[in-house]
Amino acid sequence: MTPTPADERAYMDSVEVPGRTFDHLLAGFIRNEANDCAVYRVEGQSANPGDAFGNVFAWLWERDRNSAVAAFACLLAEARKQSDEGDEVRLEELIRGLRLALHRSRLGQQDEFHEVGRTLRDQVPEHFGGRTDL
């Protein structure tokens, strides 16, 4: 029997883990998704973090935007670290890719994504000591 979207939401809503465990799960997930961003990006165009990251980001965005921004900043840091030196993933590439990854969420719609992109452009540099060369 194939689960319905309502069944999947109910299942997801019922999973509980301690906060510290969640942080470890999220960190490992981000590290893995960052590797894909670095490897499969289209240089100068987009670095798609993938549907799984899009789903997690949308979930975080709805619950705590600061956590969503922090997760995105961690993704960018890891993707940059895993990129070739001098050819690091750029903030704008990852923002463009995030829009693709959010296609299953209302956040992927142009009017909704405008706020997401603006927020990321404003707040992510703070996670890098205010750098503007991302």
Write the layout of secondary structure elements.
Elements: H1 5-14, H2 19-40, H3 50-63, H4 65-82, H5 91-101, H6 110-123
Report on this structure:
- There is one protein chain.
- By secondary structure, the chain is mostly helical.
- Helix content is 66%, strand content 0%.
- It is built from six helices and no strands.
- It has helices spanning 5-14, 19-40, 50-63, 65-82, 91-101, 110-123.
- Helix 2 (19-40) packs across helix 4 and helix 3 (50-63) runs antiparallel to helix 4 (65-82).
- The radius of gyration is 15 Å and the shape is globular.
- The termini are far apart.
- The model has no long low-confidence stretch (mean pLDDT 89).
Compact summary:
This protein is mostly helical and 134 residues long.
Shape: globular
- Note the main sheet: none
- Would you tell me the overall average pLDDT? 89
Q: From the alpha-carbon coordinates, what is the Rg to the nearest angstrom? A: 15 Å
Question: Helix count, per DSSP?
Answer: 6
How far do the termini sit from each other?
Answer: 47 Å
SSE topology string: HHHHHH
**What structural category characterises the helix and strand content?**
mainly alpha
Low-confidence stretches: none
Q: What multimeric state do the chains show?
A: single chain
Share of β-strand residues:
under 5%
Task: List its traits.
6 helices; globular; mainly alpha; 66% helix; 134 residues
